[in-house]
C-alpha cells in the first residue's frame, strides 16, 4: 500500500526527528488515494511510529525534568503554522479553487482580482509556496526563500540565507507577477494595493513561526542545574549575597520566558548591572536577547507611549543604559512604566489604536555606585554588583555556549510553576533572605536628596511628644501626634532651624514635603481635617504601632551614654551654625544648585549632634535645634 510505503520511508529517514506536525504532513501525503477501509490501519501505524519517536528522544533524563506544556504554550504552538514538509497544491486543483470572472455571455474570462484569489496563489503556486512567513514575536512578514518567477521582464526576488524582512519592493514584484499575462508566466490578476497587502499577510499567516520559542525549545534541558548560578558565574558576583544572586538569576530568566509565552504577565522589576565601564555589561544583555535586543536611553522614549511602542516592538530584552542619568531626569515616570503590563498607542499610518502587551523585560546598567533616587520605588530595582572589569570582562563566549541550556531550564521552571498554579500571575518576586539583601543593596545604591533630609527630620519630629488637637496617641503618660498636615510639618521644620520667617509655601515646597512623606512607610494619607492654624487641610496619619516602637527604643537606650559618645566623637570637629542638610533643602526650595552633605556638626547648648545622613538611609534625627 502507498500508505505503508510512506511510513516505512519515514522510519528510515531523518524525518523521524522532525516535529509532530511535520510527521502528520508526511503521513497525510496521498490521503486522497487512500480508501476508507485503510483508516484503522493508518491510525495504528501512526501510534506505533509516535511511540518509537518518543522512546528515542534525547537526552535521556528523568521524566520529572520535562514538565507538561502550559495552556499558554499550547496556544502559542497552535499559532505556529509553518510546515517543514508541506507541499504546494497541484496546479489543476489550485485553478479549480480560484474565483473566476465571466464575460457578458457567461463564459469564464480569467480570474477575479480579489484578495482571496491572490492569497490562494501566493500560498500554493510552486514559485511562491513557503516564500512568505510571519514572525509571531515581532509581527514582521519575512521572505524565507528566493522567488524564481520565470516571467518575461520581471526580476526574481532574492534573499539572504535565513531570510529577509519583507519590504515594499517585494510586494511590488509579487503584484507585478500576479498581474502579468498567463502566457508570460503570470496569472492575469491586477490586484489593488489594499487587496494585495491583505493577501500577503494571509499567506504569511499560513506559514507562521516564533523564532525565539523555537530556539529555546530546540534542545531539551539536560538536567544539569545552571539557572540559579548563571549570573554569579558570568558577572562574578559577590558570593556573600548568594541567596539574592541565585534568586535574581532564576527570576530574571523565568520572567523572560514567561513574558515570551504570556505577554503582559506581571513583572515590574529591573535587574541592574552595576559595574565599571568596559566590563561588557551591554554586550552580555545582547547575548541574553538571542538577537532581539533594544535600548531606551532618553526620557521621551519612556513618556511617549507611541515612541515606547516603536522602541520595544520586536524586542525581548530592553537595556536602560546609564540608569543614573535617566532616573535623575524622571524617576517617577520610569517607576510607573516598569509597572505597566501593556503600552497603548496608535502606530504611524495605522487607523486603530493598539494595546500591545509587553513581551519584553528591562535590564538596567550603571557605571555609578549611586543611581536610585526615590526610595518608594527602589523595590523595583535589583542591583547586581558586577565583578568583571575592563581588563577582565565578561566571558561572552562561555555565555553563548551555555545560554541555550539556561533557557531550557528556565522553560522547565516556568512549566512547573504553571502546573502548580494554572491561573493568575506567577510569583516572580523576591522573598525571605533574598528580599532582605535586596533592600540593603538598594539602600547602598540610593543617592542622598533633599527629600531624604526632610524625611529624616520628619521621622524625628513625629517621634517627639506633642500637644494639641491631634496629639491623641498616649504612651507612658505622654501624647504624640496621631496625624499632621504638610504645611504644619513645613513650618515646624524651619522653626527648628531657628528661622523667624519661613520660605514661601509654594509648589516646590509641597513637592519636597510630599516626596519626604512618601518615603515614610509608617505615614499614610488620611482624610481632610481642620487644623487650628491652617484651616481645612489634607491630613496624614501616623501608625501608632510605629510610634510605640520608637518610644520603646528611646526608653531602653541609655541616652546619657549616647550623648557622651557623641561628645567624644565630635569634640575635635569644628562646630557650624549652618548644616549642609539645611542647605540642601533650602536650595531645593529656591532652585539653587544642591551641594552634597559633608560630615558637619552643630553645637546646641553644649550638645553636639551629627548632621550627616548616610546615603540610602533615613535617619531618625537629622538636625536638632533649640525651640524658640
From TrEMBL:
Residues 217-419 form the Virulence-associated protein E-like domain. Signal peptide: none annotated. InterPro entries: VapE-like_dom (IPR007936). This is Virulence-associated protein E. Residues 553-572 are annotated as: Disordered. Pfam families: VapE-like_dom. It comes from the Bacteria.
Amino acid at each position: 500500500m502507498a500508505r505503508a510505503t510512506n511510513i516505512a520511508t519515514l522510519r528510515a529517514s531523518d524525518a523521524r526527528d522532525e516535529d509532530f506536525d511535520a510527521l502528520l504532513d508526511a503521513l497525510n501525503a496521498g490521503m486522497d488515494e487512500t480508501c476508507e477501509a485503510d483508516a484503522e490501519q493508518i491510525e495504528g501505524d501512526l501510534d506505533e511510529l509516535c511511540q518509537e519517536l518518543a522512546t528515542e528522544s534525547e537526552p535521556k533524563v528523568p521524566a520529572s525534568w520535562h514538565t507538561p506544556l502550559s495552556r499558554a504554550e499550547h496556544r502559542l504552538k497552535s499559532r505556529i503554522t509553518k510546515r517543514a514538509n508541506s507541499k504546494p497544491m497541484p496546479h489543476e486543483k489550485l485553478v479549480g479553487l480560484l474565483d473566476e470572472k465571466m464575460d457578458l455571455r457567461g463564459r469564464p474570462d480569467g480570474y477575479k482580482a480579489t484578495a482571496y484569489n491572490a492569497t490562494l496563489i501566493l500560498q500554493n503556486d510552486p514559485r511562491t509556496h513557503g516564500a512568505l512567513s510571519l514572525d509571531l514575536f515581532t509581527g514582521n512578514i519575512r521572505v524565507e526563500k528566493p522567488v524564481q518567477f520565470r516571467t518575461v521582464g520581471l526580476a526574481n526576488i532574492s534573499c539572504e540565507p535565513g531570510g529577509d524582512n519583507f519590504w515594499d519592493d517585494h510586494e511590488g514584484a509579487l503584484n507585478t507577477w500576479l498581474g502579468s499575462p498567463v502566457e508570460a508566466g503570470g496569472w492575469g490578476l491586477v490586484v489593488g494595493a489594499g487587496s494585495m497587502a491583505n493577501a500577503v499577510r494571509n499567506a504569511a499567516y499560513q506559514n507562521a513561526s516564533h523564532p525565539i520559542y523555537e530556539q529555546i525549545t530546540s534542545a531539551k534541558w539536560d538536567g544539569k542545574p545552571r539557572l540559579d548560578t548563571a549570573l554569579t558565574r558570568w558577572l562574578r558576583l559577590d558570593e556573600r549575597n548568594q541567596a539574592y544572586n541565585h534568586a535574581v538569576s532564576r527570576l530574571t530568566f523565568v520572567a523572560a520566558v514567561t513574558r515570551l509565552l504570556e505577554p503582559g504577565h506581571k513583572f515590574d522589576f529591573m535587574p541592574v548591572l552595576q559595574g565599571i565601564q568596559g566590563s561588557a555589561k551591554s554586550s552580555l544583555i545582547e547575548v541574553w536577547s538571542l538577537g532581539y535586543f533594544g535600548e531606551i536611553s532618553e526620557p521621551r522614549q519612556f513618556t511617549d507611549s507611541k515612541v515606547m511602542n516603536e522602541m520595544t516592538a520586536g524586542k525581548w530584552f530592553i537595556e536602560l543604559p546609564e540608569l543614573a542619568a535617566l532616573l535623575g531626569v524622571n524617576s517617577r515616570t520610569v517607576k510607573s512604566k516598569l509597572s505597566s503590563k501593556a503600552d497603548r498607542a496608535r502606530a504611524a499610518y495605522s487607523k486603530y489604536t493598539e494595546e500591545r502587551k509587553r513581551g519584553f523585560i528591562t535590564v538596567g546598567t550603571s557605571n555609578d555606585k549611586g543611581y536610585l533616587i526615590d526610595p518608594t520605588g527602589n523595590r523595583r530595582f535589583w542591583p547586581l554588583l558586577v565583578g568583571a572589569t575592563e581588563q577582565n570582562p565578561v566571558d561572552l563566549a562561555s555565555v553563548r555556549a551555555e545560554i541555550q541550556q539556561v533557557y531550557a531550564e528556565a522553560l522547565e521552571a516556568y512549566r512547573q510553576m504553571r502546573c502548580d498554579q494554572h491561573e493568575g500571575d506567577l510569583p516572580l518576586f523576591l522573598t525571605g533572605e533574598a528580599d532582605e539583601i535586596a533592600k540593603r543593596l538598594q539602600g547602598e545604591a540610593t543617592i542622598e536628596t533633599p527629600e531624604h533630609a526632610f524625611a529624616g527630620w520628619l521621622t524625628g519630629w513625629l517621634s517627639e511628644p506633642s500637644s494639641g488637637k491631634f496629639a491623641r496617641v498616649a504612651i507612658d503618660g505622654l501624647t504624640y501626634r496621631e496625624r499632621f498636615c504638610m504645611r504644619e510639618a513645613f513650618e515646624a521644620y524651619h522653626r527648628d532651624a531657628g528661622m523667624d520667617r519661613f520660605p514661601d509655601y509654594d509648589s516646590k515646597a509641597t513637592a519636597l514635603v510630599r516626596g519626604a512623606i512618601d518615603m515614610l512607610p509608617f505615614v499614610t494619607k488620611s482624610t481632610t481635617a481642620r487644623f487650628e492654624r491652617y484651616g481645612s487641610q489634607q491630613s496624614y496619619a501616623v501608625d501608632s504601632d510605629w510610634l510605640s516602637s520608637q518610644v520603646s527604643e528611646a526608653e531602653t537606650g541609655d541616652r546619657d551614654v549616647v550623648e557622651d559618645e557623641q561628645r567624644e566623637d565630635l569634640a575635635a570637629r569644628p562646630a557650624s551654625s549652618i548644616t549642609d542638610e539645611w542647605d540642601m533643602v533650602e536650595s531645593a526650595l529656591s532652585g539653587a544648585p544642591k551641594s552634597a552633605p559633608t560630615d558637619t556638626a552643630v553645637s546646641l547648648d553644649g550638645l553636639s549632634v551629627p548632621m550627616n545622613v548616610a546615603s540610602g538611609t533615613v535617619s531618625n534625627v537629622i538636625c536638632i535645634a533649640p525651640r524658640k
